[in-house]
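User: structure tokens for this one?
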Amino acid sequence: MAATRVTVTLPEELMVEMDRYAENRSQFVTEAVRAELERRRKERLLQCLQHPHPESVDMADLGFREWVCLATEEDADLIDPESLRNVRWDAQKGWQES
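Assistant:
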């Protein structure tokens, strides 16, 4: 993977603490950024599930098997096949088990 050099300014006390845990600052920052991006992606997904776009309600009616055909590799970690449940969207109550 290609790398790009960036300049980031951090508070000194944060650098001191980071140096206690990391031998390689670049690797530490890379892992932290990846973790934060993943957290935000999941947070955004949860927001979408709590307040779905009207078109996504139509998509939910298609069901899981059809959704899998549309999913990307990035979405693979969002699904635990062992915990799948049939759900439906109720405009008054949100997602409900069916």
